[in-house]
Amino acid sequence: MSKIRVFSFNIWTDGRADGGASSGNPRCFAVRREIIKEKLPAYEADIIGFQETMPAQRQWLIDNFPDYQVCGLGRDANLLGESNVIMFRKDKFDLLDLNMFWLSDTPGIPGTRFVTDQSDCPRICVAATLRCKENGKLFRHYNTHLDHVGPIAQAQGITVILNRMAEDYKKWPMPVILTGDMNATPDSPVIKTILKFTGAGEKLADMTEPAGFTFHNNNPEKVQIKIDYVFSNLPYAEPARTMKMDDEVNGITVSDHYPVGAALEL
Fold first, then answer.
1. What is the rounded CA–CA span in Å between residue 136 and residue 94?
2. What is the tens place of the pLDDT at every residue in 146-194?
3. Is 239 exposed, middle or buried (0-12, 13-18, 19+ CB in 10 A)?
4. Pick from 194, 160, 226, 173: which is nearest to 10 by CA?
5. Of the candidates 195, 142, 207, the residue with the CA atom closest to the CA atom of residue 169
6. Cβ neighbour number for residue 249 with a 10 Å cutoff
7. Can you give the three-state secondary structure of 134-171, one letter per residue?
8. C-beta of residue 264 within 8 angstroms of C-beta of residue 4
9. Residue 254 · residue 218 · CB < 8 Å
10. Which strands, in side-by-side order, build the sheet including 138-145?
């Protein structure tokens, strides 16, 4: 057996007035990236599913974490804009297959979205099939960011992902991991749907449930919402361990979300 540490990390986009490098905000990415670079290595992450990664942030990850491979492009029609990149250790995994699809009625067409109650943001899922070099075992990692406005669009989005997961499993069965900012709390229909899903063998479990809340909006004493997850049908590694990256430097955290992770056994 091999232990793998999997994280979900909404890095907070560098493109808005509240998080952008030119905003003058003390929590802009130009400040936070130094905290990320300092704190992230201590968690010994093997795989991280990021959300809200703008092109410059994606390149920063590539430049500053050379031991990792960064996979995935932007969600817009020109493949720019925000991305949900997957970053994994080069010395631990081989990339066997990579796919990116849009959460829409036409998943293969870049930039598409649902025409129901979805926000203006296209939404995507990145799926990577990885081989563990230590034991040769395979697994598939899906990473996404569901819509923040429409409950119907959220339901449609997770349906597209789970249907794709089931199709992939029929073609090439293997354990699965699903990471993401679901913009949905544990008692929501979206999360209940994920936990009932049986299309990839064993049911998925919320491996980060013990971590508690993840979104704090830079005010963790007042805002305590769990919307970030690592789901899997792999077991916890022994001993079971869930991790939350809640370190602060001068009152500033790495993002407006706490990255959360779990040690899984493959």
1. 9
2. 999 999 999 999 999 999 999 999 999 999 999 999 999 999 999 999 9
3. exposed
4. 226
5. 142
6. 13
7. CCCCEEEEEEEECCCCCHHHHHHHHHHHHHHHHHHHHH
8. yes
9. no
10. 93-102, 124-132, 138-145, 176-181, 228-232, 205-206
